[in-house]
Fold this protein.
Amino acid sequence: MLSAVPAGRMTVAVVCGNLEPTIGGGSSLCQSLLDGLLKILPTIHERRFLLFSKAKKVPDKYASLKMISYKEENLNKKIKKNACDLVWFMSGGGFPEPAEIPYIATIWDLQHRQLPFLPEIQQNREWEYREEKSVPFIGQATRLIVGTERGKEEVCRNYGVDPARIRIVPLPLTAEPGTPKSGKPKNKKEPFLFYPAQFWPHKNHVVLIKALHLLRGKNIPIRLVCPGDDKGNLQKIRSWVKRLELGDAVEFPGFLSDGEIQDLYSQALALVFPSLAGPDNLPPLEAMASGCPVVQAALEGPQEQLGEAAFYADPFRPEAWAAIIEKLLKTEFQTEVIRKKEKGRELVQKRTPAEYLRKILDIVDELGPIVDLWK
């Protein structure tokens, strides 16, 4: 009997971009994946991982991953200098220059193709920029990582990619379930809804403001807490709050730490997530891990991602959001709330960084024979 041919050694460049927390949930996800990678490194003998980051300095805990600082224009030179065989673009939040060796591309969303009519895409030639960058990056990738069948369909339809080059790896939590919270005291005010999101038009804060107005019109005491950095739309949301006389019902605390966000998940009546972007989103998974009910925009991608673990409302109908929120306050509806929470716990137990990395490493191994063609 012929023995198996041993796998060749491979140096993998892990390109994680910017790890600054203020850029959004993508940074937290990348750090969680790097944490997971550190845990399994001792078990990986034929794969060497180098960390490429735009940050000038990364946390000391990543010292065992050799860190190479780069700028967009010199990434390929540094990959070549360090004799890398394969590249994994860990972050899916942009479209870098294609690597000049086989690479795995992560795609979180194709917002400019799905929502080309929004200001953040139309202004300052943003649509043209993303299109110019995405076509070669997606087109030349050896493998593409998406989180859902919907994401796969979007890549195939918009870029003509062979489905055989795409792998579905569901988005994981930014931390394992049960991450310790900051220990702040419980909020003792009236019930509140929680929506952590930067202030872009596609985040669709306005539907929540209108829904809150409907609830307040029925004398239902409830508040809305909206942390997040302003990306140009906060003043417009504030104007809606003023117009609907909701100044005492809506809070804008700005950027919050992960610990503060975890505390608010544990206290909120629900995470409300009307964002139009997707098909994958992190906050619903984080909320479920904290036992917080989720009301999600009824869009195909999120419905596939979350299944029966969430409540759904039309993203453009405030009355639909108000109706579900009103039900969440009723005693007779709590059986259904508990059922959703249980479904959420079941879901997040499967969506761990460790499981995500296992599937990525399978893809790395799968590409070994391709790398061997000219290594």
Summary: The first helix runs from residue 25 to 40.
